[in-house]
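User: Can you predict the 3D structure for this chain?
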Amino acid sequence: MRAFLFPGQGSQKLKMGFDLYQNYTEAKEVFEEVDNALSQKLSSIIFGDDAEALNKTENTQPALFAVSLATLRVIEGQSGKKLSEICDMVAGHSLGEYSALVACDAMPVATGARILKIRAKAMAEAVPVGTGAMMAIIGLDTEKVREVCEKASDETTKCSVANDNCPGQIVISGHKEAIERAQGIAKEMGARKSVILPVSVPAHCPLMQPAKETLENALAEITLQNPSIPFVSNRTAEFAVDAKEIKEHLAMQMVNGVRFRESVDFMVSKGVNEFVEVGSGNVLSGLVKRTTDKATAVCVGSIETVSEFLKTL
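Assistant: Here is the predicted structure, written as structure tokens:
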């Protein structure tokens, strides 16, 4: 069985998807659709030279979404097969859930792009710059990291698990002061390494409550269909099949951690033995390889990797 995975923030790079845009009508149409939906020439930022512009959260999120969907449309178009004929389930990491939901016909491309723009803007505005932080902790299991967060939190400044990525790699998020305390505590508890990440938004923690409320309002205005193939939720690390339930998960994802490691284990338990990361970068395929030895993982996001993948269908 095969699962498609869609990457999240951190996988962006300038010129991502450009070779697909230049060579495949299917890809070009997706980029144009996203540009039109946002009333913004986002493709010019993606294919340009201004890394700072691309790294702005409100551009990064729909940009990664566009590249993932462009790659998917090329795979479908060049193979002559629908997604349901190519893979058995889908999942995404954080914003990648929106790519996954468009992939499985739960929402149109234009809707996904607009919701992500709202989501990203709300996240950027939720917390004053310098108030929050995120940190990767290497070498401790999830329970130990939760203990670190409990010890580092006090009445007014708190932190919690944001991304359970793979065994021994966990990202925490919260108030900057709590994150700094957590760094020392993690070392005392045996962490091999801890790195404060170069981000301005403390994602997937209670500080994102204002963004959650904005996203809830935006999601209430759209129609979401039930997924056409099984969709695995970040929030539950299980299948989510009902559109109303998925909306709730998407909103709650803003203030809760991404359970990626558990999601991979869940999909493997359901028979998945091949993961395909669709879009920019190879972050998720790397996490899969560190999570399980019962499945292979490849990344597909360029002419070369698309061509290689098409040979397997």
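The CA atoms of residues 231 and 240 lie 6 Å apart. DSSP finds 15 helices and nine strands in the chain.
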